[in-house]
Amino acid sequence: METNEHAKHTPKTRTQFHSILAHLSKQGADREEWAVLVLGGTKDDVDTLQKLGFKNISLTNLASAMDPAPAKNTNGIRHLAVDAEDMGLPDNSYDLVFAHEVLHHCRSPHRAVCEMLRVSRRHIIFLEPNDSAFMRALVRMGFSFPYEITAVVAHGCTSAGLRDSAVPNYVYRWNENEVFKTVSSFMAEHKFTVRAYPYWDFNVDERGLKRRKHTKLHLLTSTIGARNFLALLRLSQGVLNRLPLMRKQGNKFFCQVEKGSQLKPWLVFDRSEIVFNRDYS
Prior knowledge:
CATH superfamily: Vaccinia Virus protein VP39
Strand content: 15-25%
CATH topology: Rossmann fold
Structural class: alpha/beta
């Protein structure tokens, strides 16, 4: 399951995303050898990962969107027909599993995250909408809409919604605690680390503003003008991202989960089986 809505964003609108990914990628000194799986990937995703030193990259999409074959190679990049919610791939088969604004198009974003964890042997990284008090307030006041209608409209009202259909998907928002609970439930045996980076990124243009007729943003743009409103957003973004407390209230949520090999202290290996550590009782 995937969407190509983020493929329309120019690299300049993804500065924060690129800088955070670059920072996290430094932790993998041998990243040239890493096998990377990109869910719903685009050329922008490939270019970004290659610039950071990743070379062994596989892109996925639903079988219905693959053309012409379910598995092929293009310029050294492998293409696979994979459903993010049911990948059908072996456990621990990729060093890194990466998803850029894909999970909220799934029927179960949590199931997709669990599939990412299962298939990864080192890390998962994803970018999604951020769940913060400020963003929830914007939705309640009508300045942000809980369903992603604009993406479907931008694709001729035929795709880019729920599981890349014409049905607008609910915008599922994440925060660090939500990720921690999901990973704790799925990886109950092993230790892990969650690194969360909320931030502001107003990657919208005048055309995108016009599509947001179902929000109250048109009241602002009709008063001060779309260009002035966008200029104000760009200025606000720079200021807000420099203030830690305000940055956490941002609209974007970048997250990395590192899988650990150590068992929880109440568990031990008995031959090849994980059992409860009786000394812990």
